[in-house]
Specification:
2 domains; 22% strand; Rossmann fold; alpha/beta; eight-stranded mixed sheet
Length: 337
């Protein structure tokens, strides 16, 4: 039997990739005997180990003109049977009009400016709508993407790879929670100082025996601060430095499969809502997502409400809205741990 060529379009942010993992798993099951390729961005390609069984091609997240030309060439020289548009980029919606023998499944957007237009919508084989106009409770993007591929017509097994060879020699404690420092949330939105983060880590350590934590990669100032205070494993240099007997460990510049592995081995994830919490959700870890909304007017409130309902997982996803007042935030968190 001739294998069909299947294409998944997913060159976007890393957090968005994890929101789409269940849908991608449905594609892998549905087309198990076919030839599958996925388009990833330079940002999310570091998680390509999740799909060792399929081909990958890397394009810019924002699709430069050179990328668009290469994508058109790819379509011209490959007889593609089915395409799954899981990244709602305007350019992708022109492809069904140009390549009409290919079946296009797509996530579409209803907003002030619809993607695609009603004219291009008619060339899609099947589509599901993310409606950014309505405020009422609705399905999350997780479920909408899943429904696009699998209407319950076939059974699935997990084909996403969760096992791989590690490149570091730091042995994690048997039990630990995972925390992540996100500078924009803690410093810019909450106005918490690094001393507050130090106190927060100490507070967590009174509730949990071992704390492993990370910060944004290649932030020299923040890395220097944490590395001087805590036992540190540097994932670039592959060096462990023991600073004290505290059971708080800084994972400097952790990324890719090392990050995935650390979250996988954790007991619980306490982190700003984003890539870390979505990895944890995929791995079925208890989650406490940390959030703060800087709402200036009613439009900000509506925008945040729509965003939360769209990107939050459908169930078992706990979150807390932090306050700028550090002590008041701790009082709220105590009730959720």
């Amino acid at each position: 039997m001739v294998k069909k060529k299947i294409l998944i379009l997913k060159n976007d942010r890393t957090g968005d990739l994890f929101v789409s993992l269940n849908a991608i798993n449905s594609v892998l099951n549905k087309h198990f005997n076919d030839e599958i390729c996925i388009f990833l961005s330079e940002i999310n390609k570091k998680f390509s180990f999740l799909f060792p069984q399929i081909n990958k091609k890397i394009f810019s997240m924002d699709l430069k003109i050179f990328d668009k030309i290469n994508i058109l060439i790819y379509f011209l020289f490959n007889k593609i049977d089915t395409v799954y548009i899981l990244t709602p980029k305007s350019f992708y919606y022109f492809l069904p009009f140009l390549f009409r023998k290919t079946k296009f499944y797509a996530i579409t957007i209803k907003a002030k400016r619809n993607r695609p237009s009603n004219f291009l919508l008619s060339y899609l084989y099947k589509y599901e709508i993310i409606d950014r106009k309505i405020l009422k409770k609705r399905n999350s993007s997780y479920n909408i993407q899943k429904k696009l591929i699998n209407d319950g017509l076939f059974d699935e097994k997990n084909l996403i790879n969760e096992s791989f060879n590690l490149s570091h020699n730091f042995v994690y404690p048997k039990k630990f929670i995972y925390f992540h420092y996100k500078h924009r949330l803690f410093n810019y939105l909450l106005n918490w100082k690094l001393e507050d983060i130090k106190n927060f880590l100490a507070f967590l350590n009174t509730k949990y025996e071992n704390i492993l934590f990370s910060s944004e990669i290649n932030n020299k100032k923040i890395n220097h601060y944490f590395s001087n205070l805590y036992n540190t494993y540097d994932f670039n240099q592959k060096i462990y430095e023991k600073k004290n007997n505290e059971k708080i460990y800084f994972l400097k510049d952790i990324d890719g499969f090392d990050l995935f592995d650390a979250v996988k081995k954790s007991q619980k994830v306490i982190a700003p809502e984003g890539i870390i919490t979505h990895i944890g959700y995929f791995l079925k870890k208890p989650i406490l997502a940390l959030m703060h909304f800087n709402l200036k007017d009613r439009n900000d409130f509506i925008s945040q409400l729509i965003s939360c309902r769209e990107w939050f997982p459908p169930k078992n996803y706990h979150f807390i809205v932090l306050k700028k007042d550090y002590q008041k935030s701790i009082q709220k968190i105590v009730k959720r741990l």
